[in-house]
Amino acid sequence: MTAKEPDFWVLEYVTITKDPRTGLVVAIGGSLEAADILQRNGGFLPAPGPRGDYHRLPHGLPVEQQRLKATTASHALLAAGHSVHLDPALNALATPDGERDAAVRYLARLAERAADAETSEEIAKVLTEIASPVHGLLPLTRHVVVCAWITGTDLQRTASGEVPEPFARLRKSTESMSQATDVILHARNHAARTPRPAATTGPPTVPSPGHPAASDPGHAHTTPGAPRLRSAP
In this structure, what DSSP letter does residue 48 have? Predict the structure, then answer.
Protein backbone atom coordinates (compact mmCIF):
# COMPACT_ATOMS: atom_id res chain seq x y z
CA MET A 1 0.00 0.00 0.00
CA THR A 2 1.42 3.34 -1.06
CA ALA A 3 1.51 5.89 1.74
CA LYS A 4 -0.14 9.20 0.92
CA GLU A 5 1.97 12.30 1.28
CA PRO A 6 0.61 14.61 4.00
CA ASP A 7 -0.69 18.08 3.25
CA PHE A 8 1.47 20.85 4.64
CA TRP A 9 0.33 24.36 5.48
CA VAL A 10 3.23 26.12 3.81
CA LEU A 11 2.93 29.88 3.39
CA GLU A 12 4.09 31.55 0.19
CA TYR A 13 7.77 32.29 -0.26
CA VAL A 14 8.98 35.91 0.15
CA THR A 15 12.14 37.30 -1.44
CA ILE A 16 13.59 40.58 -0.14
CA THR A 17 16.34 41.95 -2.35
CA LYS A 18 17.76 45.12 -3.87
CA ASP A 19 16.97 45.84 -7.50
CA PRO A 20 20.31 46.58 -9.21
CA ARG A 21 18.82 48.95 -11.80
CA THR A 22 16.74 51.24 -9.55
CA GLY A 23 18.49 50.66 -6.20
CA LEU A 24 15.12 50.03 -4.54
CA VAL A 25 14.66 47.34 -1.89
CA VAL A 26 11.75 45.17 -3.01
CA ALA A 27 9.81 42.27 -1.50
CA ILE A 28 8.31 39.81 -3.96
CA GLY A 29 5.79 37.07 -3.21
CA GLY A 30 3.93 36.21 -0.05
CA SER A 31 0.35 36.17 1.16
CA LEU A 32 -1.91 38.90 2.50
CA GLU A 33 -0.53 38.19 5.97
CA ALA A 34 3.01 38.67 4.64
CA ALA A 35 1.97 41.97 3.07
CA ASP A 36 0.60 43.10 6.43
CA ILE A 37 3.90 42.20 8.17
CA LEU A 38 5.98 43.97 5.51
CA GLN A 39 3.95 47.15 5.92
CA ARG A 40 3.78 47.13 9.72
CA ASN A 41 7.29 45.90 10.59
CA GLY A 42 9.40 47.15 7.70
CA GLY A 43 7.63 50.22 6.41
CA PHE A 44 7.24 48.66 2.96
CA LEU A 45 4.82 50.20 0.48
CA PRO A 46 2.56 48.21 -1.87
CA ALA A 47 3.19 48.84 -5.56
CA PRO A 48 1.77 47.44 -8.82
CA GLY A 49 4.20 45.62 -11.09
CA PRO A 50 4.16 44.09 -14.58
CA ARG A 51 4.03 40.60 -13.05
CA GLY A 52 1.76 41.35 -10.13
CA ASP A 53 1.80 43.48 -7.00
CA TYR A 54 4.93 43.68 -4.87
CA HIS A 55 6.27 45.76 -1.97
CA ARG A 56 9.17 48.20 -1.81
CA LEU A 57 10.82 50.55 0.62
CA PRO A 58 10.39 54.32 0.07
CA HIS A 59 12.74 56.18 -2.26
CA GLY A 60 15.79 57.95 -0.87
CA LEU A 61 16.41 55.84 2.23
CA PRO A 62 20.07 55.63 3.36
CA VAL A 63 21.71 52.25 2.90
CA GLU A 64 21.79 51.51 6.63
CA GLN A 65 18.08 52.27 6.91
CA GLN A 66 17.38 49.95 4.00
CA ARG A 67 19.32 47.14 5.68
CA LEU A 68 17.67 47.72 9.06
CA LYS A 69 14.11 47.73 7.69
CA ALA A 70 14.71 44.72 5.43
CA THR A 71 16.25 42.72 8.29
CA THR A 72 13.44 43.65 10.67
CA ALA A 73 10.78 42.64 8.15
CA SER A 74 12.50 39.33 7.35
CA HIS A 75 12.70 38.32 11.02
CA ALA A 76 9.05 39.23 11.57
CA LEU A 77 8.08 37.10 8.57
CA LEU A 78 10.15 34.17 9.83
CA ALA A 79 8.58 34.44 13.26
CA ALA A 80 5.14 34.22 11.64
CA GLY A 81 6.11 31.02 9.81
CA HIS A 82 6.88 32.41 6.36
CA SER A 83 9.76 31.22 4.20
CA VAL A 84 12.04 34.16 3.44
CA HIS A 85 15.13 34.80 1.37
CA LEU A 86 16.95 37.96 2.47
CA ASP A 87 19.67 39.31 0.21
CA PRO A 88 22.92 38.95 2.23
CA ALA A 89 23.82 42.55 1.34
CA LEU A 90 20.68 43.68 3.22
CA ASN A 91 21.33 41.64 6.34
CA ALA A 92 22.09 44.18 9.06
CA LEU A 93 23.24 41.38 11.39
CA ALA A 94 26.00 40.21 9.04
CA THR A 95 29.46 41.18 10.25
CA PRO A 96 31.72 43.13 7.84
CA ASP A 97 34.64 40.91 8.86
CA GLY A 98 32.78 37.90 7.54
CA GLU A 99 32.43 39.52 4.12
CA ARG A 100 36.09 40.48 4.13
CA ASP A 101 37.17 36.97 5.10
CA ALA A 102 35.08 35.56 2.27
CA ALA A 103 36.77 37.94 -0.18
CA VAL A 104 40.22 36.93 1.07
CA ARG A 105 39.36 33.24 0.67
CA TYR A 106 38.08 33.90 -2.84
CA LEU A 107 41.31 35.63 -3.87
CA ALA A 108 43.43 32.88 -2.32
CA ARG A 109 41.44 30.28 -4.24
CA LEU A 110 41.98 32.20 -7.50
CA ALA A 111 45.73 32.21 -6.86
CA GLU A 112 45.64 28.43 -6.31
CA ARG A 113 43.70 27.92 -9.53
CA ALA A 114 46.22 30.01 -11.46
CA ALA A 115 49.18 28.15 -9.95
CA ASP A 116 47.65 24.70 -10.55
CA ALA A 117 46.34 25.38 -14.07
CA GLU A 118 47.29 22.76 -16.65
CA THR A 119 45.67 24.29 -19.74
CA SER A 120 45.35 27.74 -21.31
CA GLU A 121 41.59 27.40 -20.90
CA GLU A 122 41.96 27.27 -17.11
CA ILE A 123 44.20 30.36 -17.18
CA ALA A 124 41.60 32.17 -19.29
CA LYS A 125 38.91 31.42 -16.71
CA VAL A 126 41.03 32.87 -13.89
CA LEU A 127 41.82 36.02 -15.89
CA THR A 128 38.11 36.39 -16.69
CA GLU A 129 37.33 36.50 -12.96
CA ILE A 130 39.87 39.31 -12.60
CA ALA A 131 39.06 41.53 -15.58
CA SER A 132 35.58 40.76 -16.92
CA PRO A 133 33.94 44.10 -17.83
CA VAL A 134 31.06 44.12 -15.32
CA HIS A 135 31.82 41.84 -12.37
CA GLY A 136 35.59 41.45 -12.71
CA LEU A 137 37.62 42.09 -9.58
CA LEU A 138 39.72 44.83 -11.16
CA PRO A 139 36.81 46.84 -12.66
CA LEU A 140 34.94 46.59 -9.35
CA THR A 141 38.03 47.77 -7.47
CA ARG A 142 38.44 50.65 -9.91
CA HIS A 143 34.83 51.66 -9.25
CA VAL A 144 35.57 51.80 -5.52
CA VAL A 145 38.62 54.00 -6.13
CA VAL A 146 36.62 56.30 -8.45
CA CYS A 147 33.94 56.75 -5.78
CA ALA A 148 36.61 57.47 -3.16
CA TRP A 149 38.31 59.95 -5.51
CA ILE A 150 35.06 61.86 -6.23
CA THR A 151 34.02 62.07 -2.58
CA GLY A 152 37.55 62.68 -1.32
CA THR A 153 38.10 65.47 -3.83
CA ASP A 154 35.00 67.30 -2.59
CA LEU A 155 36.07 66.86 1.03
CA GLN A 156 39.72 67.79 0.47
CA ARG A 157 39.22 70.69 -1.93
CA THR A 158 40.76 73.89 -0.58
CA ALA A 159 39.00 77.22 -0.24
CA SER A 160 40.60 78.36 -3.51
CA GLY A 161 39.17 75.34 -5.31
CA GLU A 162 42.46 73.49 -5.67
CA VAL A 163 42.58 69.71 -5.38
CA PRO A 164 45.40 68.28 -3.23
CA GLU A 165 48.11 66.57 -5.25
CA PRO A 166 47.55 63.06 -3.74
CA PHE A 167 43.93 63.08 -4.92
CA ALA A 168 44.93 64.37 -8.34
CA ARG A 169 47.27 61.39 -8.62
CA LEU A 170 44.51 59.10 -7.38
CA ARG A 171 42.49 59.97 -10.48
CA LYS A 172 45.43 59.03 -12.71
CA SER A 173 45.66 55.68 -10.93
CA THR A 174 42.14 54.82 -12.14
CA GLU A 175 43.35 55.30 -15.71
CA SER A 176 46.22 52.89 -15.04
CA MET A 177 43.73 50.37 -13.63
CA SER A 178 41.68 50.64 -16.84
CA GLN A 179 44.79 50.03 -18.92
CA ALA A 180 45.72 47.05 -16.75
CA THR A 181 42.22 45.63 -17.27
CA ASP A 182 42.65 45.90 -21.04
CA VAL A 183 46.03 44.14 -20.88
CA ILE A 184 44.60 41.30 -18.78
CA LEU A 185 41.58 40.92 -21.06
CA HIS A 186 43.88 40.77 -24.10
CA ALA A 187 45.86 37.98 -22.44
CA ARG A 188 42.63 36.26 -21.44
CA ASN A 189 41.33 36.32 -25.03
CA HIS A 190 44.65 34.98 -26.33
CA ALA A 191 44.59 32.13 -23.80
CA ALA A 192 40.95 31.34 -24.61
CA ARG A 193 41.78 31.03 -28.33
CA THR A 194 44.81 28.78 -27.78
CA PRO A 195 43.89 25.24 -28.89
CA ARG A 196 44.46 22.37 -26.54
CA PRO A 197 47.52 20.24 -27.27
CA ALA A 198 46.73 17.17 -29.35
CA ALA A 199 46.42 14.04 -27.23
CA THR A 200 48.79 11.20 -28.10
CA THR A 201 47.32 7.75 -28.83
CA GLY A 202 50.09 5.90 -27.01
CA PRO A 203 53.83 5.73 -26.35
CA PRO A 204 56.13 5.39 -29.42
CA THR A 205 57.26 1.89 -30.35
CA VAL A 206 60.84 1.19 -29.23
CA PRO A 207 62.67 -1.80 -30.73
CA SER A 208 63.75 -4.33 -28.16
CA PRO A 209 67.47 -4.98 -27.54
CA GLY A 210 69.00 -7.37 -30.08
CA HIS A 211 66.25 -6.73 -32.63
CA PRO A 212 67.11 -3.64 -34.69
CA ALA A 213 64.37 -1.78 -36.49
CA ALA A 214 63.65 -2.91 -40.03
CA SER A 215 64.31 0.59 -41.36
CA ASP A 216 67.88 0.64 -40.02
CA PRO A 217 70.07 0.52 -43.18
CA GLY A 218 73.06 -0.74 -41.19
CA HIS A 219 71.47 -4.06 -40.40
CA ALA A 220 70.17 -6.80 -42.68
CA HIS A 221 66.96 -8.55 -41.77
CA THR A 222 67.56 -12.20 -40.95
CA THR A 223 65.33 -15.03 -40.02
CA PRO A 224 66.02 -16.46 -36.56
CA GLY A 225 68.14 -19.62 -36.88
CA ALA A 226 69.19 -18.97 -40.49
CA PRO A 227 72.94 -18.72 -41.28
CA ARG A 228 74.34 -15.34 -42.17
CA LEU A 229 75.57 -14.91 -45.78
CA ARG A 230 79.15 -13.79 -46.15
CA SER A 231 80.14 -11.54 -49.01
CA ALA A 232 82.74 -12.66 -51.51
CA PRO A 233 86.27 -11.50 -50.84
Answer: -
